[in-house]
């Protein structure tokens, strides 16, 4: 894996182990999930498609900063995702508030980097799956600024093929209107729809060390997301700059385009 292929992948250097999640997350989920549903009254489809136990990967389209809040709030089981370490490193009251909030919604702090750091990020997610947890990832890598659905990076497929975890495709609709790029606060007037698709078993594509298998598995994931989100297809990779927790671009070697 070259540095060019991994330069945008977050690193887990000095990040806490996923097993460190505890009371704050449990209490936060009990409070934030019903509160979020009460305020935004999201329309949820396909909740029965989500396995209630065991490792599972939620693979979603990505339109807004609040996507990483919307999925944990409406999912019928705890969900974890990677968030940049800066959200956990702040000082004073604001730093404490940020740290408690992101911990409460299931975020795992990571630092960005390339090379070994990229592999460490994959290891962080693999550890969560090995523990039988659910993780949420964005195959596009970063938010879509024009509302179109971009081609998927192969990191999600790599994890699925390596761990055997099923992939639940997710289609988010309306989160970009609730909190557009650049907005400091979410709107209370817009509504969100979250669609959970049927779990995908990607093992028939081959093994994780096959570039062709990763590419075909990724294309299957993106086709399922497209069917749920009904977005226009961009037929290109999203190369927008990273902002916040939304840039998890896991590009593996020999990616078939």
Automatic annotation (TrEMBL):
One of its GO terms (molecular function) is acyltransferase activity. It comes from the Bacteria. The keyword Acyltransferase applies. This is Lysophospholipid acyltransferase family protein. The keyword Transferase applies. Keywords: Acyltransferase, Transferase. SMART domains: PlsC. Residues 56-175 form the Phospholipid/glycerol acyltransferase domain.
């Amino acid at each position: 894996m070259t540095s060019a292929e991994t330069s945008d992948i977050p690193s887990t250097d000095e990040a806490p182990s996923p097993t460190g999640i505890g009371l704050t997350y449990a209490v936060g989920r009990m409070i934030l999930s019903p509160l979020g549903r009460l305020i935004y009254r999201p329309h949820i489809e396909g909740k029965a498609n989500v396995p209630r136990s065991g490792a599972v990967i939620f693979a979603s389209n990505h339109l807004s900063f609040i996507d990483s809040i919307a999925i944990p709030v409406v999912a019928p089981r705890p969900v974890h995702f990677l968030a940049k370490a800066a959200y956990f490193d702040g000082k004073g009251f604001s730093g404490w508030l940020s740290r408690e909030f992101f911990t409460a919604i299931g975020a795992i702090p990571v630092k960005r980097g390339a090379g070994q750091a990229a592999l460490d990020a994959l290891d962080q997610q693999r550890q969560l799956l090995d523990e039988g947890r659910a993780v949420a990832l964005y195959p596009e890598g970063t938010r879509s600024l024009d509302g179109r659905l971009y081609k998927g990076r192969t990191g999600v497929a790599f994890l699925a093929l390596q761990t055997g975890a099923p992939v639940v495709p997710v289609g988010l609709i309306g989160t970009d209107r609730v909190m557009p790029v650049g907005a400091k606060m979410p709107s209370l007037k817009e509504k969100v729809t979250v669609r959970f698709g049927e779990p995908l078993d990607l093992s028939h594509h081959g093994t994780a060390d096959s570039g062709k298998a990763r590419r075909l598995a990724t294309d299957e994931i993106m086709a399922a997301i497209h069917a749920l989100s009904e977005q226009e297809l961009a037929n290109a990779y999203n190369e927008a700059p990273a902002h916040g927790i939304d840039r998890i671009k896991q590009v593996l070697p020999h990616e078939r385009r």
